[in-house]
Request: fold
Amino acid sequence: MHIYANPKRFLSLASWLTPLLFFSGLVLSIGAMAWGLLVVPPDRLMGETVRILFIHVPSAWLGMGGWTGIAVSSAALLIWKHPLAGLSARAIAVPGLVFTIICLVTGSIWGRPTWGTWWVWDGRLTSMLVLMFLYIGYLALAQATAREGASPKVAAIFGLVGAVNIPIINRSVVWWNSLHQPPSITAGKSAIDAAFLVPLLTAVLGFSLLFGAIVLMRMRALIADQQVEARLRRRALDDEPVPAMPSATAVMG
Amino acid sequence: MRESLPQWDYVIGAYAVGLIALALLIAWSWQSMRRAEKRRAELKRR
Reply:
């Protein structure tokens, strides 16, 4: 991991990895959504609305996965002082927030025909809403510390503390009564029929690759912005006129 | 459990929200990366 602490080395890797992740993610995501919309049969209970699964579930996983990425990057910044860790956490925040919003909105749309309501204040929905506010808070804090030239450690600590919400989201449907269904996929087991599971896993993989490509784009933008700022600061220092030194005779007398 | 609502409207609505948000995110990320890298290249040339 420390090999890529050098931005130059990281950028040479990112220049070919970004289009690779982007185009493979795009093909898989479009394919999985077309599969989910056109091929998968309607569900016995949920009918046609089961198709929302293929956009809602990958968004939920990436919303939670994004914050896990922020927490890991924050730990790398605080423990190893990895120079790109703070940038990668900032780069994850915007796509993480967008996927969390997609999850909340598509879940709400799905809730109306299946539960008869757009929203309920239960453990799963509320903890997911808290995740959205955590992302907004993290973005505001990270931007403020970067603008003021303050230590990125403040945002990193926030990123680590906020990770407490991830197991709460994951276990919420087990701990509390909820309209939301219990976990369908657990380690090594799945309660979902293969007709739904295969396109679902394809969608998760496709969206994850797209997420990776977006994070790399954000990191490249943040690195370029930092390099521009550093260069402008250096030039401003070089152009600054040197203050005239008082002559020895004037001082003496 | 299921209401007799036009189910496809909800499906299309959910996909439209997801795809528009994703398209905007990709366009914004791509553009901000291109703009920042172009600015760096211009500054290097000067």
Q: What stands out?
A: Residues 53-176+197-234 of chain A form one domain.
